[in-house]
Design brief:
The chain has 203 residues and is an all-alpha fold. Helix content is 74%, strand content 0%. Helix 6 packs antiparallel against helix 7.
Amino acid sequence: MGNNFAKIISVIFQPLFMPTYTLLLVFNINMYFSAILPFFAKLLLLIMIFSSTVLIPVIIFTVFKRKGLIRSYHMETKEERNYPYVVTAIIYFLMYMLILQTAVPAIYSFFLLCATTLSLLLLIINFRFKISAHMAGIGGVCGLLIGLAFRLNLDLTFQIIAAIACAGLVGYARLKLNSHKPSEVYLGFLAGVSVFLGFALLL
């Protein structure tokens, strides 16, 4: 597996996509919070999450790049990551507050609160150390699935194994591209798992 494969993996598991992937996972968990929502409500929620957590940040990051606040979309230095972390944390929190006002089950706002907390944690860590946001994102998915399995007594064995396998691929890709040191990969994954697992166990 070469650099091209590693680049594809890095794009597929871009941190901005994680809220959308998480939402799709929750939709497919066989529980009341999935069954209670009609298809149109799920579609509307998916469009809202994708627009706010992918499209809007991309537009803002493009402005940052033109203003010279970031040199590239890869944000290879930790100094370039501060503004994007702040932006994503604000967007995630606003979406959390918005969805909280709707009649949908709390799980759909809950994971956005987790994402907000994780973004703030990455920002704080970033003042001292650069860690992998890619690994934090996929780590969050792993943590959420493990937490839901324990807290709600769900059999999510396949989903958890698949998520951990994806985490392995993402870690490989970030190392193959020399985007991170091994310690940055491990710490990113640990940060994501810790935040989402911790919150999920408190549900």
